[in-house]
Design a protein that fits this description.
Largest sheet: 6 strands, parallel
Number of helices: 8
CATH superfamily: Isochorismatase-like
Strand content: 15-25%
CATH architecture: 3-Layer(aba) Sandwich
Order of helices and strands: EHHHEHEHEHEHEH
Shape: globular
CATH topology: Rossmann fold
Number of strands: 6
Radius of gyration: 16 Å
Strand order of the largest sheet: 3-2-1-4-5-6
Length: 201
């Protein structure tokens, strides 16, 4: 089925472009993880917003925020089980957006879970604006991007991952490829920004 994108019924969602995930002073970089792909995608997202931002109905940036009184207990339990520290702790400054330009009309949504619909007003906001299609960009592909894109599909939206505008750790390239292929087959669409710019125009 060809995807008919109506700009006035389309939202662009930028997932978790935050310092802790890819900035030099973030915990990912401090752990020695290579994050060049995530840093590079920030520039590409800025360009995409310049190209389609004045055409779509909504631009939404999400920020993953953690903390003892913020993070749901089940997510804390998983972190404890797997022995990793939750990132983007509120108040550290590392939860702030990094290397992306936020248009004045954009909406910023803080979220305590990987899925941007969970514990937030995202679904209400999309319905209030009669959104049919969501274009999803950001990091990390196999966690928050995947969770949010699948939830969008489950909520009845045309869910589109912008394939060249999502990223994860440099050594997770094969995982990202598999995640995107699976999503494209069963949940929605994976399309590149060039194609989407033409469809939205």
């Amino acid at each position: 089925m060809d995807l008919n994108i109506k700009p006035q019924k389309t939202a662009l969602i930028v997932i978790d472009m935050q310092a802790d995930f890819y900035a030099p002073n973030g915990s990912t970089a401090k752990r020695g993880k290579s994050v060049s792909q995530m840093r590079e995608v920030a520039t590409k997202i800025n360009q995409f917003i310049n190209e389609v931002g004045d055409k779509v109905e909504l631009i939404i940036f999400t920020r993953y925020v953690s903390g003892g009184n913020i993070t749901p207990r089940n997510l804390q339990a998983v972190a404890e089980k797997e022995k990793y520290n939750l990132m983007c702790e509120k108040g550290t400054g590392l939860e702030e957006l990094s290397d992306v330009t936020v248009p004045h009309e954009a909406i910023i949504i803080d979220k305590p879970h990987y899925d941007a619909f969970a514990y937030t007003n995202l679904l209400k906001l999309l319905k209030e604006h009669d959104i049919e299609t969501v274009l999803i960009t950001g990091v990390r592909t196999e966690v928050c991007v995947d969770a949010t894109a699948k939830r969008a599909a489950s909520e009845g939206f045309n869910s589109v991952i912008v394939g060249n505008l999502v990223a994860t750790f440099d050594d997770k390239g094969q995982t990202q490829k598999e995640i995107l292929a699976f999503f494209d087959k069963y949940y929605g669409y994976v399309m590149d920004s060039g194609t989407l710019t033409k469809l939205v125009s």
